Amino acid sequence: MDTSPLDRVDALLTSGQPDAAVDIVRQAAAAGDAAAHFRLATWHLIGDPLPRNLQAARRYLTSAVAIGHVDAALMEVALTANGGGAPADWPAALALLERAAAGDPLAADHLRLVQAMKLDPSGLPLASPSAEVLYEKPDVRRFPSFLSAAECRHIALAAQDLLAPALVADPRTGRTIPNPIRVADEAVIGPTREDLVIRAINRRIATASGTDVAQGEALTILRYGKGQQFKPHLDTLPAVLNQRGWTMLIYLNDQYHGGETLFPRLDLKVKGRPGDALLFRNLTDDGSPDPATIHAGLPIEAGVKWLCTRWIRQEPFDPWAGVPA
C-alpha cells in the first residue's frame, strides 16, 4: 500500500532525526500539500522542531487555508483576532470566519454565537456588564448572567480534548506532580485555540474589570468531580514583577452540590448560577498580595462543576509565555 511521505515524519522525530523530518515536510509543502503547510505552521508556533516564528506560522496557515485545510482556517481566525504574528484585527478575523463558515459546520457554529453577541464593529462589548458589590475592600463583585447558556456550553466544549489532571512542578525535584492545592482537571485555551467566541468573551472580561485584554492570561477551564476541590490559596504569584491584579471566575453549570467559592477571611461564600461571573482584586493599595482574598473552591459533594478563570496581570502579559500553542 502506498503511503504519504508525511507518514514517516513522526517516526523520524521520535528517532531523533528532526532535520530529515523537516526536509520531508518542506518538500511536501512545495508540492502543494495542505497538511504539510499546516504542520510547518504548527511547528513554528510550538517552537519545535523549528524555531518559534509567528510570522512564518501565519504565512503557512494562510497557504494551508488556500489549499483547503479546515483546522488551519480556524487557527488563522484565532491568531488574526488576538494578534499572533501580526497586529490584532477583529474585522479581518470576522471576515475569515464568515468565509470558513460557508464550508465548515464548526466555523458556522462559532459565527452564530458571535453574531448573537452585542458587539461594536471592533469586537468590543456595546455596553459594560452590570455588577453587584459583594465586598468593598477587597473589591469583590458578582456579574449575574455574564455569559449566556450557549457561551457556557461553548467554553466547556472547547476544553474537552485538552482536559487533564492539574499538575505542578515539584520545587524539590523539578518533576511534574499532581497539584496538591487544586484537585481537578484543567485545560488552558492558548492563543491558537482562542476562537472568535472566546476572544470576544475575554474582551468582555477586560471591559468588566476595567483592564486591557492584553493583561489577561489564557482562559483556564476547570472541571471538578465528586470530592475534588481547590484548597485555600491566593492567586498571586511568588517573585514576579507583573503580578496578578485581578481574578475573574465564571460559573458554567449548576449540576452539582457543594463546590461554593469561599473567602474565609471575609465570611463570604458564593454559589454562582450558570453564566455568573465573580471578579475580585488580589492586591492591596500598595500592590502587595492581599491576604484577605484567600479563597477556596469547596469540595464537590455530588455531580460535576465546570468553571473557567482568567487571571489578569497589572501590565500586558505575553500570551505565548509558558502557554502551549
From TrEMBL:
Metal-binding listed as a keyword: yes
PROSITE patterns named among the record's database cross-references: FE2OG_OXY (PS51471)
Top-level taxon in the UniProt lineage: Bacteria
Lineage, highest ranks first: Bacteria, Pseudomonadati, Pseudomonadota, Alphaproteobacteria, Sphingomonadales
Protein name as annotated: 2OG-Fe(II) oxygenase
Keyword list, A-Z: Dioxygenase, Endoplasmic reticulum, Glycoprotein, Iron, Metal-binding, Oxidoreductase, Vitamin C
PANTHER family linked: PROLYL 4-HYDROXYLASE ALPHA SUBUNIT (PTHR10869), TRANSMEMBRANE PROLYL 4-HYDROXYLASE (PTHR10869:SF246)
Entry-linked InterPro entries: Oxoglu/Fe-dep_dioxygenase_dom, P4HA-like, Pro_4_hyd_alph, Pro_4_hyd_alph_FE2OG_OXY, TPR-like_helical_dom_sf
Alphabetical list of Pfam families matching this protein: 2OG-FeII_Oxy_3 (PF13640)
